[in-house]
Amino acid sequence: MSADEPEEEFSLYAHEQAVIRQAEAMLERLDEVADGVRQLARAYQDGYHESRRLVRISDRMQLDLHDANRTLSLQARELNTLNATLVKEIERREQLEQELRRIASVDELTGLHTRRHLLELGEHELKRMARHRRGLSVLLLDLDHFKRVNDAHGHVAGDRVLEHFGTLFRSALREDDVPGRFGGEEFMAVLPEIRLEAAAEVAERLRVRVAEAETQWKGARLRVTVSIGVAEVAIDESLERAIARADRALYAAKRNGRNRVELAEAELPGATEQGVPDA
């Protein structure tokens, strides 16, 4: 072997070592890549499991949402039914309230105002009269010998007479006048913006109509007359006191032969308050 051979052997060994080192480096890099692939695979697997978990949660949520929507739909239908029922109940109560107000304010037999409603309207007209000073009068009426009609023909016949009288009563008054049934066969009217003399003319017109009228009942012609007391409400006089004066005039008409109109005496200053007599 020549002197150059050891150097050549050394160079070959170094080259082999370099190749080995490169191979080892490549293996290390392959191990790193393998670790990265394994980590990526684990991450993918974890992600896959998480995705499946989220899908299951989403499916469950969709089912829950569907159930909730179905429940809400049922509740909405029930609420609509309840609302419809409530609306009907409110309408029924309003109709009942209107009917109760009508019963409280209108006499069923004659169609005139009831005593209570008549007095309420009278107080309203009294306040209006106090503001405008235009006069206010009261008529108090009683059918003469009405008991004879009931005794001879029965109470149903008497009711027909009262019903007919209610029609005659309204026809003799003005549109703004307030007629009412005061009790039994006794009636009253509040006449706004009218003085005593004009009120007496209204009363006389009514008296004549009643005297000339007939109520047909089972072939019989029933006739009644009416006595009327008239009072003009004085300034600062209460409605109750004016009614009491008209009542005294009514009893004067009864004493003087019935079927007549009597005017009440004027209110005297300092007169004591008197109650309204029973109807």
From TrEMBL:
CDD domains per the UniProt record, alphabetical: GGDEF (cd01949)
Name this protein carries in UniProt: diguanylate cyclase
Keyword Coiled coil: yes
Keywords tagged on the record: Coiled coil
Record's catalysed reaction(s): 2 GTP = 3',3'-c-di-GMP + 2 diphosphate
Domain GGDEF: 134-266
Coiled-coil parts of chain: 13-40, 79-106
Cofactor(s) in the UniProt record: Mg(2+)
EC numbers on record: 2.7.7.65
SMART domains: GGDEF (SM00267)
Organism in which the protein naturally occurs: Marichromatium gracile
GO terms under biological process: cell adhesion involved in single-species biofilm formation; negative regulation of bacterial-type flagellum-dependent cell motility
